[in-house]
Amino acid sequence: MMVVAADLLGKTAFWGIGFCLIVVSAAAGASNGANERLNIWPMPKSVSHGHHSLYLSDGFELKTDGSTYLDGSGILKDAFSRMVEVIRGTHAVDGNVVAGFNQSHVLKGVHVVVLSANEELQHGIDESYHLTVPDIGSSLYAYLRAQTVYGALHGLQTFSQMCQFNFTSRAFEVHQVPWTVLDQPRFAYRGLLIDTARHYLPLPVIKKVIDSMTYSKLNVLHWHIVDTQSFPLEIPSYPKLWDGAYSSSERYTVGDATEIVRYAQRRGINVLAELDVPGHAQSWGVGYPKLWPSKDCQQPLDVSSDFTFKVINGILSDFGKIFKYKFVHLGGDEVNTTCWTSTPRIQKWLKTRRFDGQQAYQYFVLRAQKIALSHGYEIINWEETFNNFGSKLSRKTVVHNWLGGGVAQQVVAAGLRCIVSNQDKWYLDHLDATWDGFYSNEPLANITQPKQQALVLGGEVCMWGENIDASDIEQTIWPRAAAAAERLWTSPENLANDLSKVGGRLAHFRCLLNQRGVAAAPVSGYGRDAPDEPGSCHLQ
Amino acid sequence: MMVVAADLLGKTAFWGIGFCLIVVSAAAGASNGANERLNIWPMPKSVSHGHHSLYLSDGFELKTDGSTYLDGSGILKDAFSRMVEVIRGTHAVDGNVVAGFNQSHVLKGVHVVVLSANEELQHGIDESYHLTVPDIGSSLYAYLRAQTVYGALHGLQTFSQMCQFNFTSRAFEVHQVPWTVLDQPRFAYRGLLIDTARHYLPLPVIKKVIDSMTYSKLNVLHWHIVDTQSFPLEIPSYPKLWDGAYSSSERYTVGDATEIVRYAQRRGINVLAELDVPGHAQSWGVGYPKLWPSKDCQQPLDVSSDFTFKVINGILSDFGKIFKYKFVHLGGDEVNTTCWTSTPRIQKWLKTRRFDGQQAYQYFVLRAQKIALSHGYEIINWEETFNNFGSKLSRKTVVHNWLGGGVAQQVVAAGLRCIVSNQDKWYLDHLDATWDGFYSNEPLANITQPKQQALVLGGEVCMWGENIDASDIEQTIWPRAAAAAERLWTSPENLANDLSKVGGRLAHFRCLLNQRGVAAAPVSGYGRDAPDEPGSCHLQ
Questions:
Q1: What contacts B110, CB < 8 A, 6 or more positions away?
Q2: What residues have CB less than 8 Å from B434, skipping those under 6 apart?
Q3: Per the CB < 8 Å rule, is B90 touching A204?
Q4: Do the Cβ atoms of A472 and B519 come within 8 Å?
């Protein structure tokens, strides 16, 4: 799959009079002078480039001859249009590139060949791509080859970062041609959590977050839909659940959720829905008070009642129609069982079963797991479930670390899969966590056996919503999430050990996000700090 | 112009079986229960509404029969499309409104009649509109009548705020029909300043600011382009001026500036370009060091050199090709003349002219004014020019207040025009200035004579850029700028005196901005403060 099309390589060689390839390896942060710096984020697996420039043709086009993938739903076509728009949106140009320029310096488009007709987006699909941009010549096209359309989408993102407006020629150009890029992600799971329970996030805001994720090749939107404070999602099986929303307008219909999944999927991003049980679920009882242990003690969900599990079953049944990702997240974190042990009715039930609070917690989680399995889902649970009764969890469980470092090591040693989100490094709501901590956080720390390494699916940065709404979500996510995205995408040998060598490239990427209308905060500050004085984007 | 089309009124009366008009006057903050609250921002001059709802047809359309305005450049058509997109962007719906609903409850579109064919956007054009939405009936259209297309654009904004997604019908609806709105702005100048010298703002960011301005009917983007720190704009007459940009990429071409003007104009917004002289101009000398008094003392611009005024002439000549608004802003604030009085060469020149520093400052400002007048511009100057030598200013000067309150009173007493931006109330970079101060700031305070009142063109909120870049501009502007926008748009009799009655409506408007993807901050906090705890948008 990674073989360069012979004809293209031949042409490159023929055209390559006077070109000088700089092969960049382990050069994530290396700078060969300002003009030579490789400003691609996240750094590809292997990349080489030259010193010439090509103009992007006014009629810059997508060509798909030879593709097995027919793009019936327009995923590739739309991605190409978005890419062109994002490049061209930064400056206004007169449409004179075709007319006014030396035709041997004009790149006419991208020729994309996708080998698989299947556009199902599942965990672990092939996201690799091979991108070449020719040197000066005639009738030039960049060439992008990928197994799946989602790999091709990543290739287009990389291509977009090679392009820049030239203030002298007044044209958009691809710099540093010829290019050869061979790329593939290190981890299959590269996530970002958003939280619509602490604050409702309107649809256009979620869509913008999804768009911004594509720029650094993140591929899972973990949607923490519901929590103690609110239940914004429509559940047809239990239509009073969203009575727990903050207001009548701060709700998502099934249509809205379906649209979010569709929108994300067309951008190569899976949506992981979370139903956090049995804690973090107080809002469920607004519509169905029977789910509360009592009126005065409202969570965790009543473990003693079959109705609780009927509702979970109904929700997961409805989820199955909306969320097609193979995983569902069942939460399981921060369960305080006091309401169970202090409510007489439940006390009694515990006694019959000979459960203490902890055993009831285990019972709840395992029963919820079984329901999820019955709907065809594999399960992700927060790490407390593993820490408390890891050996009892379904073998189809992925343990989601958050409390601290070192957990992944134990999880994979126990033969379970793991996602890393240790809060000290990868919680975006920790405003004192800076980009270098996000960058340095290694999911495979102290995991040396390849078999165990393979059990680490990847990692996720978490944008918890207590102090996050539509007004500040973007600049709290970016650019720090991008630092983690490189950790998750880029091969270890291309990751920078010396962080001073990567800061400039990250600052460049942050400015690129700004140019694309994403409100990424200065790299140098804490969290989402405002710039502290006048100055260039590239130095802040 | 404000006469209701007879046939339409007739129909409304005929259809109006069982409808009950609530005439809202002086009701800016009045709430007749949650369902009845009039959630339009800024409050129109006169508005009445009923209690019914209509579904927006799937094929919701723009009809322009009888319009004198032919919309050759698509200003109206595009505005209509944007409006529909903004309404529909908040939730996903199945396309079943035409098919599934009682046809007498379906609104098919808006019939817009624009009386003037002229689409020139100049200061003081007629921005009024008359909007009616019928009650239940058949073949229904809203009717929007305006003298100019820009009045019609305001009418569409108002219409968009009557619409809402209904979670029961799963359709977008116009609530509280029938509506009759007669509306016009109180002030002709309703501005927002942005500052691209302290931080470069990419084109997509400026465009988004422009879009967000339209939602509260602001109509002037004051572009503070250049300052001490950077000179980002291309000036063909003096091509080295933008050597003073922060970096090669943080620049605007003439094409970019033209595009900003075009983009704004199509949304009913004029762009006021500022060339702040003679202070705040150090960056000019990066390309032309001769403009500095000396290498060690770099501003104000050298008053003694004809080259300085040649450059100003060149810039204003180039401005004339880009910025078509009748005003240009010549700054004139915060001039410290020490570099003049301490540089031997300029000292000598001052002596010859018998000028002290203050007189030289006056000389500079008046000479710059003459150049601007020669290019056909009327002039806006910051208030220091008036405070120091008001009687000498061209009678075509508009004095731009900023230092504090009470200035407008003096300016109009002197027979000059004025724009109000007193920093204690209307500087958005003052993060301790809260929305109630923005709302309460009255441009006509202590100005009682109608003739003097007429000299107050309006006001402007200022988003100075020392700590503002693409990452925080939106939430620092909104929602506070909207509070000022109502002060500038709405008739005094409809402004709320009791601020507790307007906060809920402003919170609603802030949530509306969020739903449209604008990162408006919580109403309740300081400046752009993050929400301080989980909760509903409407209560924060």
A1: B61, B62, B63, B80, B141, B142, B143, B144, B156, B159
A2: B480, B526
A3: yes
A4: yes
Place of tokens 């990162």: B519
Tell me the pLDDT tens digit for each residue of B418-452: 999 999 999 999 999 999 999 999 999 999 999 99
Least confident piece of the model among A34-38, A379-383, A388-392: A34-38
- Cβ contact, residue pair A471, B531, below 8 Å: yes
**Sign of the C-alpha dihedral computed for residues B176, B177, B178 and B181 taken in this order:** positive
Instruction: Using an 8 Å CB-CB cutoff, list chain A residues near B205.
Output: 514, 517
- Give yes or no for A537 touching B (CB within 8 A): yes
Scan residues 116-175 of B and list those with Cβ closer than 8 Å to A: 164-165, 167, 170
**Which residues of chain B register pLDDT less than 70?**
1-36, 94-100
Residue-by-residue DSSP string for B252-286: B-HHHHHHHHHHHHTTT-EEEEE---SSS-TTHHH
The count of C-alpha atoms lying within 13 angstroms of the C-alpha of A411, restricted to the half-sphere facing its C-beta, is 35
pLDDT of the residue at B540: 92
pLDDT surpasses 50 at A34: no
Q: State the Cα–Cα distance between residues B382 and B395, nearest whole angstrom.
A: 15
Please give, rounded to a whole number of angstroms, the shortest distance from the CA of B38 to a CA of chain A: 16
Q: What is the DSSP string of A91-114?
A: S---S-HHHHS-GGGEEEEEEEEE
Helices and strands: H and E segment counts in chain A: 19, 15
Contacting residues of B for A89, CB less than 8 Å apart: 203-204
End-to-end C-alpha distance for chain B, whole angstroms? 41
pLDDT at B338: 96
- What are A490-504's pLDDT values in tens digits? 999 999 888 988 999
Residue whose entry in the numeric block shows the structure tokens 């649209």: A259
> B185: cis peptide before it, omega within 30°?
no
Question: Under an 8 A CB cutoff, do A514 and B470 touch?
Answer: yes
Between B208, B256, B518, which is nearest A91 by CB?
Answer: B256
The full DSSP string for A474-505 is HHHHTTHHHHHHHHHHS-GGGS-SSGGGTHHH
Residues 6+ apart with CB under 8 A from B496: B28, B29, B439, B502
With CA atoms as reference, report the closest residue to A284 among A322, A327, A315, A253: A315
B93 to chain A, any CB pair closer than 8 A? The answer is yes
Residue B20 and residue B158 in contact, taking contact as beta carbons nearer than 8 Å: no
**HSE, side-chain direction, 13 A CA sphere, residue A520:** 30
The answer to whether residue B204 neighbours chain A at the CB level (below 8 Å) is yes
Among candidates A167, A251, A468 on the partner chain, residue whose Cβ is nearest the Cβ of B251: A167
On whether any CB of chain B is under 8 Å from the CB of A243, the answer is no
3-state secondary structure of A405: coil
The verdict on ipTM greater than 0.90 is yes
Q: What is the pLDDT of residue B100?
A: 66
The verdict on whether B486 is a catalytic residue reads no
Of the partner residues A475, A515, A534, the one whose CB lies closest to the CB of residue B229: A534
Give the residue from B439, B420, B437 showing the smallest Cα distance to B490.
B439
- C-alpha A444/C-alpha A413 separation (Å) is 12
Count CB neighbours of B6 within 10 A: 8
Which residue in the block uniquely carries the two structure tokens 């007189």?
B359
Instruction: Give the Å distances, CA to CA, from B355 to A518, B299, B350, B359.
Output: 51, 18, 5, 5
8 A C-beta contact, residue B200 and residue A514: no
Whether B102 has its CB under 8 Å from any CB of chain A: the answer is no
A-contacting residues of B 36-55, CB under 8 Å?
Answer: none
- Which are the catalytic amino acids of A? 334
> Which neighbouring-strand residues pair with A182?
A46, A130
Helices (H), B6-47: 6-15
Could you report the per-residue pLDDT of A359-376, keeping only the tens digit for each? 999 999 999 999 999 999
